[in-house]
Design a protein that fits this description.
The complex is a heterodimer of chains A (about 200) and B (about 80). Chain A is mainly α. Chain A is built from eight helices and four strands, in the order αααββαβαβααα. In chain A, helix 1 packs across helix 7 and helix 5 runs parallel beside helix 6. Classes of the chains: A mainly alpha (about 200), B alpha+beta (about 80).
Amino acid sequence: MLSNERYNVALRASSLITQRWPYIEGVRDQLVNQQFLTQRALERLGIYDLNQPVAELPLVNTILPAEDPPPYSPDAMPYVIQIAGTPHAGKTTTGMKLSKSIKPSLYYKEFFPEARRRAESSNDVVWVTELIKTGFNTEMLGAMDLMNDGIIARMPIFQERGYIDQVVMKRMHFLLGDKNYKTDDLDLFEQTDFFTRDKNFC
Amino acid sequence: MLALILCLAPPNISRERGSKKRFLNTLYEQYLRFHYEMINYQKLSGNPRPITYVCLDFSGSPEENYTLLKNTVDAVLTPAGFK
């Protein structure tokens, strides 16, 4: 488990990223330019609990319902399913096949603007598997905000565009959805010179 | 209403399927750690998990993966009144 201190460091990191690099593409470039964040850097950031052996993690076929879901309203917004995962897992192939078998409530859209139009004109399920291949830009950010202000709405996934950075960025924005998120601690984290202006950081 | 479905295949499976990406092992580990944190979301963040989270083993055949995902989507959508 992350200690409170380390968790707070991660929160500060997430807030700092957003303030320093408001556009996600810019953030990604920052990460890519650094090749990737090493395990040492992650540890220094306190992002991951490095004492937790990966092999012991329960992995497969876990379904955890939302513990605090927003109240359902048919007039509210579409149900958004975001598919993520490792390379060549079969997300695209399976998703395309599934989209053909579950109609009309499930839509598969390769490009996000179309999914956005669909989302705005219906209350159906929006299948955003391929969003992860289109990257993340300001248009998407706005569109996602239209859909929901939840965690996923601010959680870009950069499939095909990076390695560790896609997970790191996911986590950063994931953390931004924390209800206890505060900006008061920014100065403290600023002092750590996040993201390698200090080349020895990673 | 949001759901995140994480489809994972170990690095050796990804390679067998043609992935030539570097750092597959590390990437996989990062996904596992993310998975760990989603499982322990409330313990780590102090807040209830606001989304439905699913992790699937996608190391099987395409047919197995399809069945797995279909059943999962059915399970995820049913409480929301879409099925």
